[in-house]
Structure prediction request, 192 residues.
Amino acid sequence: CGNMRSKFSASFAGILLTPSEIVPAVLEQENFGSGLIVLLAGWLNILLSILLIAPVSLGAESVVVSLMMGMMLMSALFLMKVMGIHFFAELLGGKGSMTGLFAGLAWSMAPLHLGLPLTFLALGTRLVILIPVWIILLAWSSRLSVDVISRHYSLPQFRSALSTILPGIFSIMFMMCMAAGSAFLILYRIFP
Prediction:
């Protein structure tokens, strides 16, 4: 158990400090379990940070329900993200597995683990300083995601970035079409 914990700690520190050395090892193992732990812990950090700075006080039950609902929503969105990225990476000429992509993208969220301690540090100051901090953490995580996709699918950086962006663009277009369709149906019922 101690050896496994030290490997996990080394991988976690390595993904933050020396990602070029750790990303290939993470992708080689395709360890779904450790990726899931990093992913869930990262989301918990995000949700707890949001709850810390929220202007409302919640009871213990509301906090637990908020965390559980947030985790379920984020899990569904992450799985859709993995499927979309896998589809577009394969479409752009890459070859890789969805399990390896899941593990790699989960590990690429490691910078988000720094958000909760930084939120604690900023509680006594103006919370506006958290906006650039979270933007930097999200940009760092996004950069690691592009590296993971590039290495896992053997794609150039541009195609990797494109395979990361395209699922979001198509999701937004789909939601806009759904909203336009809903508006059309409402208008059709009002003005037949």
